[in-house]
Amino acid sequence: MARVGPRFPSSERAGDAKKKRRRPITSEDALKDLALSYAIRYPGTVEKLRRYLGQKMRDAVAANECSESDTRPWIDAVIATLLRIKVLDDELFAGIRAHSLQRRGRSLSTIARDLKHKETAPTAIEGALDELRSESDNPDWTAALALARKKRLGPFGSGLETPDRAARMKLRQKQLATLGRAGFGFDLARRIVDAPDLAALEDED
Description:
- There is one protein chain.
- The protein is mainly alpha-helical.
- The chain folds into three domains: 24-84; 90-135; 140-204.
- 66% of the residues lie in helices and 0% in strands.
- The chain is built from eleven helices and no strands.
- Helix 8 (139-151) crosses helix 10 (186-193).
- It is elongated, with a radius of gyration of 26 Å.
């Protein structure tokens, strides 16, 4: 029996398979439906959605589905609608993400950079940071302890108790670097990593 080799789709079929179905944008309502779907699936900020809709409108104009003059008014109207019905809310997004990042052991400076990268409104970023500051006398210390507990750093682990000085110093540098990458300063990181026991950390707090 002749061996039958694997079947491959024709180049035309392969090209069609790679293409994603794109809903035509022929009206403001069509753009609003697209925006709602995206905002619900990928919660984010006003500017993130505006950039996404801008790209979709450029595609629609290129496909002769609408006019370039429709772009700005349609996007502005859709965003205004989503703000009104609270599907878009930079302050809510910033607050939720800031608390999530703090629980994961991120410093205030790292949280601020993350929110800025997400194109969050500056007032929403500052509001989220102020909320964290109001909940703790030292939010960075709280976050650093959360990270140390999760990663078993300092007295939360047992590695630094080894009698091998070289191994101990190598692990200490690694733990300090872990806290540094999360945005914490050297002094704060050192106080956690070098703490003799958990009681010492409670005294620091």
